[in-house]
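Q: Structure tokens for this one, please.
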Amino acid sequence: MKHKFIRITLIVIELFVGLWAVIGGIGLVTGVIPFLQMPVAYLQGTPVSDYMIPGLLLLIVVGGSFLFAAATILSGHELGVLASALAGLILIGFEFVEVLIIDRYAIVLPSAVPQQVIMIVLSLACFGLATYLWMTEFRKQHVYAD
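A: Here is the predicted structure, written as tokens:
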């Protein structure tokens, strides 16, 4: 298995983000985590009326994609690299939507902005490292010579 350090870095990022997303998703859905309890008024003017759908998306889609990517990257199969790149793109999309919704309240939620920046940086790192692995390890298997 080539590029062991990059694979380990990817796994660490994916486990961190995946577990953070699972915890955040559970907190939004159940309301049992005090620092994740946000007023429903923050959702005014959005397509959702409570935190159930955003919480489930965070838990299942974001958390699930990152934990799946971490599990598959261990296999050394190209699916792991593709799953890692996809997980990074999913989180970028999730954060983009979150920024559109929550940043109206950035004065009230000053902790949201650094968290969003950290997650975007980690998702870009995940996508970039996965792309590098794809280009160095698997691309030549898919390029057909004349």
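A few notes: The two ends are 28 Å apart (CA to CA). The chain has a mean pLDDT of 85.
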